[in-house]
Amino acid sequence: MSINSVKDRIIERSRSLNSYIVRIRREIHMYPELRFEEYRTSQLIFDELRSMGIDVFRVAGTGVIGVVKGDRSGGVVALRADMDALPITEENDFSYKSRVPGKMHACGHDAHVAMLLGAATVLSEFRDYLRGCVKLVFQPGEEGGAGAEKIIREGVLDDVEAIYGIHVWSELPSGVIATRRGAMAASATSFVIRIKGSGGHAAHPELTKDPTIPAADIYNAIQKVVSRSIDPFTPVVISTPKFEGSNASNVIPDEVRIYGTLRVFDLELKERILKRLDKIVRHYSLAWECEGAIDIIGTQYPPVVNTPELAEFVMNIAKELGEAKEAPMTMGAEDFAYYLQKIPGVLILLGVRNEDKGIVYPHHHSKFDVDEEVLWKGTALYALLAYSHFVRKK
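The structure corresponding to this sequence follows.
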């Protein structure tokens, strides 16, 4: 059978699986699980893969890897889908809305799992045409847990020569596929600024060392870092959206905390900005007889940098499924970056925005949704990339 004939059959089989993909997505959507708590989801994946005759094993606690064995001499390629949900109360009213209070699949990871399980079905049926092996990576803990890093550390991808991941994207029209060569998503560094003074009654501020005064100055100074010390053509975002201080209007607190995030593509620049922030915090605090410090919190995600030649390959394959375009750079972060530090690969976007259906809300919104009619394209793209990657090598 010719290469083009196999591709056509993969596409048609993927399209025929859309009802299966939607069913799986809705099942996962109803029972969202936060990072490293994806027990129900991982068991569903495990059972589905086993039913397809695919070898399967656990990884990174709640993660699952399936192995579709083709010609073992042809190398190994990996396909990745993340699994975890977010601590958000869903406000959609469809029948399959979240049944778990305070938890929701508001970033599309339910769709990612469903699309990759669809691809598992296709690849298991076409394994005789595979000139290599495919590792299906169902990854936990993407939302702040750096689950990708845990999988890398466990060594289960040491034999993988390329990895591809798809993320549904609310900013792209439904069905459009996009990626880009090189830098695509920014690094993410979370921080907390602590300003310690001496609190007291708000009616007598002269008896206190009020940390809210330098806090206001520090906030304003941070907003000037980008505009006055960074090349205007360099993408940088510093946001400080969370403040903690007193719980009453008549109480001056002992401490004020400002939480923020820094997004850059240049890691050397990141370190330079953090040093500048440290100086701002310490000296503004000192001017008001307070103590100030900035600390890094949580996991620092590196930037997503796609392998240029593989991004070109992805774009050519994507065109077989419809409109494909270059993706814009985003200041959002994705822990797929950890894979790309070790393995050549590409992060890909699949548009799921459909204004006619009211599917317009952004990621991490309580009314986020996806256009399910195009999820088969994600399955087809996963399967085509795995099949064509090995053909490309010959």
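The longest strand covers residues 162-173.
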